Amino acid sequence: MRNILNLDLENDFIFIKDLKLKYIYANPKFCKLFQINLNDLIGKDDSHFIVDHLILKNCNESDLLALKNNFLISEEEVFGLNFKVLKLKINIDTNTFALLCFAKNTK
Questions:
Q1: Cα 26 to Cα 36: distance, rounded to the nearest angstrom
Q2: Chain centroid, CA 38 distance in Å
Q3: Can you say how many angstroms the Cα of residue 19 is from the centroid of all Cα atoms in its chain?
Q4: How many CB atoms are located within 10 Å of the residue 23 CB?
Q5: pTM: predicted TM-score of the whole model, two decimal places
Q6: Spatial contact of 85 and 75, defined as CB atoms under 8 Å apart
Q7: Are 66 and 88 in contact (CB under 8 A)?
Q8: Nearest CA to 97 among 59, 70, 72, 58?
Q9: Looking at residue 13, what is its pLDDT?
Q10: Which of 11, 83, 88, 90 counts the highest number of beta carbons within 10 A?
């Protein structure tokens, strides 16, 4: 899968959100982007970190669309950076779904 999607697990941004779009996991690269440690990120949504309302709206809309359609491939801009994004609806356990995201900085 890593080769098909061209994923770089060490250098790409990876996070998981619950169905309320609150963070339940983020890799160190993602935490560095927000300049926050993982413990301070968990349980919060994007509104705690993204102050630009248009960017916040776009991120939330793409998250919801990915959950609705089970996946989404898009390009998004956050903090003046452009990302190629893959979002997947995943099962965490039998009755719990979440949103897994891989984002690659396209510079």
A1: 11
A2: 14
A3: 12
A4: 23
A5: 0.88
A6: yes
A7: yes
A8: 70
A9: 92
A10: 83
pLDDT in tens, 41-72: 999 999 998 888 998 999 999 999 999 999 99
The secondary structure of 49-91 as a DSSP string is T---HHHHHHHHHHHHHHHHHSEEEEEEEETTEEEEEEEEEEE
CA distance 49 to 96: 25
CB 97 within 8 A of CB 75: no
Distance, in Å, from the CA atom of 48 to the CA atom of 50, rounded to the nearest integer, reads 6
Handedness of CA 8, 12, 5, 41 (dihedral sign): positive
Please, are residues 87 and 75 in contact by the beta-carbon 8 Å criterion?
Answer: no
Comparing 4-13, 20-29, 70-79, the range with the smallest average pLDDT is 4-13
- Report how far residue 35's alpha carbon sits from residue 63's, in angstroms, rounded to the nearest whole number: 22
